[in-house]
């Protein structure tokens, strides 16, 4: 049989091995043509008496299938099943629904073909890839602990659209299935066997043989849910146990998501409604919810930002094409504090030799010890081993001698946010560095062009801003100074790719992009305090808006003395001699009068226990001003204030040329400071509202709350022309 995405091989026993190998891709994905070929295969297997069974496996060494081809889905060129591009909303809805149903029909043909079908899963099986295996009667998976199986669709604003919300709960019960569906987490083969998602583990080179053995010896060509005596594990939605699952699940979902994520709501509805009807009706329910979800801006924005844009940026979309590929083999890190040893750790983990410098050998060694503690936590969680720890730490050389930097390809300075201190270490480093080495500053606020004045080679000076904690945060903000060369940019992007993080590229300005925009969130929280709104309400509404933490909790985590220092340094640099404003006065009272620095001394806007856990809001804060706090402010308006002000600052960054690519803006906001992921980022947030309506909202807020909400000229121009950021600043138009 002629196939493009699969290889057909029928043995003497009549068992067909269907090897999945999508051409032109490093990983198998469910393209429209692959789905059509699965349906064609099912028909052939069902209709050919010489075929006794089917084994589906992968020809890709790194996995079985990574899921749906989201690039196809997003482009609109086709729906999941290959439906043609359409124009009207009605036609688009019909095309998406029919496309999903084509996938459902293909898998139902497979599981009802009357012949035993087995999946030999030789690598990761995610999303639609796992859904294909769930439509098989038997599943055997490689015993490699690195193999991952899961349905991660909810993480990018989708729901499993290939029967995942129907087959998985029918297979293992709603109680076990819902966490996997709602959280989008993965399981390793051992856990998959324990949950009964797969039947057996086996060595990778025996998988196909094991699958064939099952077909020969104990074949069962009927799925559990197609048998007359089938019972849902744990009971259905109206059973005592099942009813409790959905009651508690709904409450927990609301608590965790505040209703911001339609994908999770729809997943819960799919499972609840689908388990009350036969499988075919359940699949139609899933298809309707999937189609409805794909028409929501939250889903489209999350797919674009959290999947497509992240992939593009991670693969070097912002790298200068004219520069040859580089490879950082030796890295210098100056400053062995929390940021410094974090950078040293992630670099050594990627196979890079690291010279870790501090003022004394003892301090430098303390940084290496900090990296060791990260590895100890990984070992405790079963994610590393003593042998791996020793290997990684062997790459970190702690020293106080700058001469050790002589072979460094790249140096990253991670000392205090003080211009004088940074200038001093820059000069010391350049004495030892070779002419080709690039020098990066891990600063969150100080302009790179100004810091480069201390360098003899400003063209090789660049900003490389990591986020804390470095080992867990996936973003690196790369800042171009006025004299920074494209070679320096290429080296920085290649290095970030090597340590497996996502780079965004911005131009120089105070606070750059991330710190500048994020600062508006905490400042608006302080403004709400000044308005007399109850601190607890401010914190809760911040989380309800989609932010990971309330503004006061954020300030405690950063350290309350840090924003105070930044305020003063900014005024000093700008030559502003005015006295402190209300926010600065409030911080002066908290920090300098009350001695509360936040988490670093276990007392800030919150009180903390001896393990650093938040206990309560600081009682003296609640008693401030006689305890006369407002609790009747509009929750919706407060949420809009938080998100709108951050998005406005992002728009100002476009106007000033700090940001030039919407992908950098949206991905940087979500990964960098946790801007409400369901929006797709601040630029997607504006585009979804529409620039005209967004400016109208700004005008209303400016009249009520002041000039900080005043729309900039770019937004007014775009509103007048009804433009969006993703059209006016389309990534395709950017220079490579």
Task: Explain how this protein is built.
The structure is a single chain. This protein is α/β, with parallel strands linked by helices and 736 residues long. Helices cover 49% and strands 12% of the residues. The chain folds into three domains: 6-295, 2-enoyl-CoA Hydratase, Chain A, domain 1 (Alpha-Beta Complex); 330-509, NAD(P)-binding Rossmann-like Domain (Rossmann fold), CATH 3.40.50; 515-627, N-(1-d-carboxylethyl)-l-norvaline Dehydrogenase, domain 2. The strands form four sheets. It has an eight-stranded mixed β-sheet, sandwiched between helices. Strands 1-2-3-5-7-10 form a six-stranded mixed β-sheet, with helices on both faces. Helix 6 (174-183) runs antiparallel to helix 10. The model is unreliable at 77-86 (pLDDT under 50).
Main attributes of the structure:
single chain; N-(1-d-carboxylethyl)-l-norvaline Dehydrogenase, domain 2; 3 domains; Rossmann fold; alpha/beta; 20 strands; six-stranded mixed β-sheet; 2-enoyl-CoA Hydratase, Chain A, domain 1; eight-stranded mixed β-sheet; 736 residues
Largest sheet: 8 strands, mixed
The strand order across the widest sheet is: 13-12-11-14-15-16-17-18
How helical, in percent, are the residues? Answer: 40-55%
Low-confidence stretches: 77-86
What sort of overall outline do the alpha carbons produce when their principal axes are compared? globular
CATH topology of the largest domain: 2-enoyl-CoA Hydratase, Chain A, domain 1
CATH architecture of the largest domain: Alpha-Beta Complex
Give the class-level CATH name of the largest domain. Answer: Alpha Beta
Per DSSP E runs of 2 or more residues, the count of β-strands stands at 20
What is the beta-strand fraction? 5-15%
Whole-angstrom Rg: 28 Å
Total domain count: 3
Secondary structure tally, helices: 30
Mean pLDDT: 93
């Amino acid at each position: 049989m002629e196939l493009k995405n699969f290889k057909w091989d029928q043995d003497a026993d009549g068992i067909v091995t269907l090897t999945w190998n999508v051409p032109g891709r490093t990983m198998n994905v469910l393209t429209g043509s692959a789905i059509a070929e699965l349906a064609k295969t099912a028909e052939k297997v069902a209709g050919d008496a010489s075929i006794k069974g089917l084994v589906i496996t992968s020809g890709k060494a790194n996995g079985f299938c990574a899921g749906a081809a989201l690039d196809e889905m997003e482009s609109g060129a086709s729906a999941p099943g290959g439906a043609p591009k359409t124009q009207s909303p009605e036609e688009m809805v019909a095309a998406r629904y029919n496309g999903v149903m084509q996938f459902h029909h293909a898998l139902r043909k497979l599981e009802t073909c009357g012949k035993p079908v087995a999946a030999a899963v030789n690598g990761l099986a995610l999303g639609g890839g796992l859904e294909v295996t769930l439509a098989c009667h038997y599943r055997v998976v490689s015993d490699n602990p690195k193999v991952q199986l899961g349905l991660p669709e909810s993480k990018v604003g989708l729901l499993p659209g290939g029967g995942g919300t129907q087959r998985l709960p029918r297979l293992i019960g709603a109680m076990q299935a819902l966490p996997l569906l709602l959280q989008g987490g993965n399981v390793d083969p051992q856990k998959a066997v324990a949950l009964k998602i797969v039947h057996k583990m086996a060595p990778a080179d025996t998988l196909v043989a094991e699958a064939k053995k099952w077909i020969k010896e104990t074949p069962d060509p009927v799925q559990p849910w197609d048998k007359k005596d089938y019972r849902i594990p744990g009971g259905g939605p109206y059973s005592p146990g099942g009813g409790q699952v959905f009651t508690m699940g709904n409450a927990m979902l609301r608590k965790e998501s505040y209703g911001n994520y339609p994908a999770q709501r729809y997943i819960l509805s799919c499972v609840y409604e689908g388990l009350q009807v036969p499988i075919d009706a359940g699949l139609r329910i899933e298809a309707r919810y999937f189609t409805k979800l794909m028409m929501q801006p939250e889903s489209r924005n999350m797919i674009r930002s959290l999947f497509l844009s992240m992939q593009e940026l991670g693969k070097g979309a912002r790298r200068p094409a004219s520069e040859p590929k580089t490879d950082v083999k030796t890295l210098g890190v100056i400053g062995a504090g929390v940021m410094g040893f974090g950078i040293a750790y992630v670099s050594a983990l990627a196979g890079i030799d690291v010279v870790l410098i501090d003022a004394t050998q003892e301090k430098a060694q303390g940084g290496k010890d900090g990296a060791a503690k990260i590895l100890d936590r990984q070992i405790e969680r079963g994610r590393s081993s003593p042998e791996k720890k020793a290997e990684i730490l062997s790459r970190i050389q702690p020293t106080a001698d700058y001469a050790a930097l002589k072979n460094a390809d790249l140096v990253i300075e991670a000392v205090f946010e003080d211009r004088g201190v940074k200038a001093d270490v820059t000069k010391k480093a350049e004495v030892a560095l070779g002419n080709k080495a690039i020098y990066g500053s891990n600063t969150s606020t100080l302009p790179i062009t100004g810091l480069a004045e201390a360098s003899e080679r400003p063209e090789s000076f660049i900003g490389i801003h990591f986020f804390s904690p470095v080992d867990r945060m996936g973003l690196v903000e790369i800042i171009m100074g006025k004299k920074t060369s494209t070679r320096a940019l290429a080296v920085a992007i290649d290095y970030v790719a090597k340590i497996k993080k996502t780079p965004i590229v911005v131009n120089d300005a105070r606070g750059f992009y991330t710190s500048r925009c994020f600062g508006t969130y905490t400042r608006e929280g302080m403004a709400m305090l000044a308005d007399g709104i109850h601190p607890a309400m401010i914190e809760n509404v911040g989380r309800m808006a989609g932010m990971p933490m309330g503004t006061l909790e954020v300030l405690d985590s950063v350290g309350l003395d840090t924003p105070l220092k930044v305020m003063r340094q900014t005024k000093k640099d700008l030559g502003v001699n005015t006295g402190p404003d209300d926010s600065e006065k409030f911080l002066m009272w908290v920090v300098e009068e009350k001695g509360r620095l936040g988490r670093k001394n276990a007392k800030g806007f919150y009180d903390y226990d001896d393990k650093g856990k938040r206990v309560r809001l600081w009682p003296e804060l609640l008693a401030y001003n006689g305890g006369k706090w407002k609790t009747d402010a509009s929750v919706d308006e407060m949420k809009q204030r938080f998100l709108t002000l951050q998005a406005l600052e992002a728009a100002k960054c476009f106007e000033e040329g700090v940001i030039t690519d919407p992908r950098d803006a949206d991905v940087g906001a979500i990964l960098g400071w946790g801007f409400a992921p369901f929006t797709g980022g601040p630029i997607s947030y504006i585009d979804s509202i529409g620039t005209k309506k967004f400016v109208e909202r700004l005008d209303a807020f400016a009249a009520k709350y002041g000039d900080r909400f005043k729309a900039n000229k770019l937004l007014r121009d775009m509103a007048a022309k009804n433009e969006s950021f993703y059209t006016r600043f389309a990534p395709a138009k950017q220079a490579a």
